């Protein structure tokens, strides 16, 4: 029995999701023996670069396509012009167009797939300054990202989700519901273990509402409690 596949597609926040305490690793645990969670995260990538990955990551002739895909870009697109990492900047109108192209490609390649859009998280500008100073000392330049700009890209991401009628997670807003939300970010941008837990919880809820509720999904092979150890072949016949 082939396990369903869930693909996590995004930038460094997705790439790092399989680190200890990461949301991708937690998702793998949630779907243990129910589905395979595959990470396709690319540190430093924005939606412009993501377009070049689509044919290889989501080919039209895939024999075992994923049942769900999370699309998690925007943190790099929102980098400010005139600051460090300005090469990552993607104008907001182009960001929207790129997101549309990404979702269209995935849906055209895999019509039945559940696509979930995730907005960039908020930016802790103080934490970002402190991180830059830890690297460059007093010569550190002003933060290359602001929370206000991240919010604009988050809003655009939600607009795309509504336009395409696909589920979404407004991580920018969700995290800021907590008064001390800065604890979710380790360097003002990337996620702490607590921040990863927020993403994991939101992704699990959205997947469940889309029909991928882990407790109700079958095991890839019978659970030991379902097996008569005197006649194990009967359990495996039923599984097929």
TrEMBL record:
UniProt keyword annotations, A-Z: Hydrolase
Family affiliation: Belongs to the 'GDSL' lipolytic enzyme family.
GO molecular function: hydrolase activity, acting on ester bonds
PANTHER family (alphabetical): GDSL-LIKE LIPASE_ACYLHYDROLASE FAMILY PROTEIN, EXPRESSED (PTHR14209:SF36), ISOAMYL ACETATE-HYDROLYZING ESTERASE 1 (PTHR14209)
Top-rank lineage group of the source organism: Eukaryota
InterPro entries named among the record's database cross-references: GDSL, Iah1-like, SGNH_hydro_sf
Name this protein carries in UniProt: SGNH hydrolase-type esterase domain-containing protein
């Amino acid at each position: 029995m082939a396990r369903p596949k869930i693909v996590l597609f995004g930038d460094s926040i997705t790439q790092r999701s399989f680190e200890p305490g990461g949301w991708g690793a937690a998702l793998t645990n949630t779907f243990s023996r129910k589905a395979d969670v595959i990470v396709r995260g690319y540190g430093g990538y924005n939606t412009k670069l993501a377009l070049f990955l689509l044919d290889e990551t989501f080919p039209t002739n895939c024999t075992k396509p994923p049942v769900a895909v999370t699309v998690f870009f925007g943190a790099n697109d929102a980098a400010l012009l005139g600051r460090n990492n300005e090469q990552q900047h993607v104008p907001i109108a182009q960001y929207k167009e790129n997101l549309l192209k990404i979702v269209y490609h995935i849906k055209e390649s895999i019509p039945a797939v559940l696509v979930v859009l995730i907005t960039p998280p908020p930016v802790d500008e103080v934490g970002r300054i402190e991180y830059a100073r830890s690297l460059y000392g007093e010569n550190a330049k002003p933060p290359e990202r602001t929370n206000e700009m991240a919010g604009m890209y988050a809003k655009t991401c939600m607009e795309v989700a509504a336009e395409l009628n696909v589920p979404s997670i407004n991580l920018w807003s969700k995290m800021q519901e907590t008064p001390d939300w800065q604890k979710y970010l380790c360097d003002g941008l990337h996620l702490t273990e607590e921040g990863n837990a927020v993403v994991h919880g939101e992704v699990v809820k959205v997947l469940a509402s889309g029909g991928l509720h882990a407790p109700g999904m079958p095991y890839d092979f019978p659970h030991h409690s379902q097996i008569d150890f005197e006649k194990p072949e009967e359990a495996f016949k039923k599984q097929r």
